[in-house]
Amino acid sequence: MSIKDKLQIILITYNRFHHVKKTFEQFILADNSPIKNFDILVLDNNSTDNTKNYITQIMTYHSNVKYSKNKYNLGISGNIAKAMETADKEYLWIICDDDIYDWSNWDEIEKAIENNTEIICAARYAIPETNINQPEYQLLQLTFVPAIIIKTSVFNDTNMRNSFDNIFTLFPHLFPVVSCINKNTTIYVVTKAIVNNGMNFKNTDCSYIRGVQSNDLCQRTRTMTWITGYANVCSMIQNEKLKHKSMLCAINFIHGNFAKFCKNMHALYFEKKNWFQIIDVSSQLDLISKIRLFFSLFRRHFVGACTENDHFVIRLLLFKIKFKIKKYIEDDYIVIDFNFMKFKKHVEKKYILLSIFNREFKIRK
Asked: Do 158 and 23 share a domain, yes or no?
């Protein structure tokens, strides 16, 4: 059986006619495309632009192109899950409508398929050469949907249920991958990327919730971010050490470092209605990282400090308690006024007066 007969390509799209056109210029119309005669299904997420008309024109000259339009906009993650469920060939490659392809290394993909490799990683931007065999880097790279070429025999009732249940995480395509990682399945990573992220069109809306009334979405979907969704994926990793390494690898890649990640969590998730998001993320971190995150949250949101009417004010925001500290000179004393207590140090004499609720105690130095 030829590679053409083994590999099913499904392009998911929504209201990106110009992106789809550029994609087909690379896939079907380019002279150097090795897959111009492969079956390609366009899974349209109920677009309202010119996508259908363009694909209909393409189909006139290319019988290998098929088109299916969803009755409703399922969201990008919903469309990914539908593509997974639709697959009926030995291998599945879900592609997006806004990426760049380099066919110079396509032979490597064909050899991997001929060798019955279960998961092929076709992208490389998140995997340094020294980390090519480390699953935490491989999983990170496979968050990029077109990076995955997967053998459909991997799909089963359990991981497909997980994929549909976790559409809100942004990564339904990763649950079969995690299932393979738990079985120590080898992931083949190409030596040179076949696909790279983004055409960089100006003013492109990349929101995962575009096309719907966002205010009417459930709270978890509306406030979902990349790292929170990824934490939900990592919750399925059975090896605790690998789970923690995968989280820290992703945090460093997305945010740069742990401090910036904490700052991001402050900004997005400290409203009470979003606290479960913090729990989703922190539950997948190692103990030290958990402590660092919660200490950062406590310091940022439970303790505040400022100057107020010549007082240095410390507030414990959680309990709505305010402490005022003021230092000043009173007669022959240097006074530190701390709410209900005062420390008075005599300028010349070696003693301190401690005043608590207007009762004074002399303490000799």
From this structure: yes
